[in-house]
Structure formats: C-alpha cells, structure tokens
UniProtKB/TrEMBL annotation:
One of its GO terms (cellular component) is plasma membrane. It comes from the Bacteria. The keyword Membrane does not apply. This is histidine kinase. CDD domains: HATPase. It catalyses: ATP + protein L-histidine = ADP + protein N-phospho-L-histidine. Residues 1-96 form the Histidine kinase domain. It comes from Oceanobacillus oncorhynchi. GO terms for molecular function: ATP binding; phosphorelay sensor kinase activity. Keywords: ATP-binding, Kinase, Nucleotide-binding, Transferase, Two-component regulatory system. Its EC number is 2.7.13.3. Gene3D superfamilies: Histidine kinase-like ATPase, C-terminal domain. Pfam families: HATPase_c (PF02518).
C-alpha cells in the first residue's frame, strides 16, 4: 500500500445512517488536489504521478473496490478529509431484518 512517505495518522469510522452502512478511511497526510479527486471519483482507471523515483500508478485497487461496492448496491466517494488529507467513504445498503 502506498501512503504518505512523511507519515500520518489514519482514522477509521463506521456508522449506520438512514439504512446505510458508512465506512470511512481518512488521514491527515498531504492530501491531493481537487482535480485529482475528481479524476479518482470519475475515471475508471489508474492515476499517474511522478516522484523522485519515477512514475507511479495509483488506483487499480481503488477501481476493484469501486466495482465490488457497486455490485452490492453501494457507492464509493473520495474527497478531502476533515483532517487535512484524503477520505475514502464506502456506503453500502444495510440488510433489512
């Protein structure tokens, strides 16, 4: 798993709201641009990024997660975290008992 090379804290939360299970993974890392977030939310393939080591590819794992969540009637939302980094929110319908 690629993550912030400078280190950061990862926050996990789970909540039930309006018959939906919301799983949130956030961090207080360096974050990303709104343009990259829109790309991750809307483009069905990986994102390229360059760093000191060369070109990196991100997002194939995210694409697989989105497909699995979608097949279960859910959605995946990526946005800026309230902690300053990135948030990935998985929203799934709850089963009716």
């Amino acid at each position: 798993m690629n993550h912030n090379e400078d280190g950061c804290t990862i926050y996990l939360s789970i909540a039930i709201r309006e018959s939906k299970c919301i799983i949130s993974v956030e961090d207080n890392g360096k974050g990303t641009t709104e343009e990259q977030i829109q790309h991750l939310n809307n483009t069905p393939h990986y994102m390229l990024e360059s760093n000191r080591s060369g070109e990196l590819r991100h997002g194939l794992g995210l694409l697989i997660v989105k497909q699995i969540i979608s097949s279960h009637g859910g959605e995946t939302v990526i946005k800026q975290s309230r902690y300053g980094g990135l948030e990935v929110r998985i929203i799934l319908p709850t089963a009716e008992c």
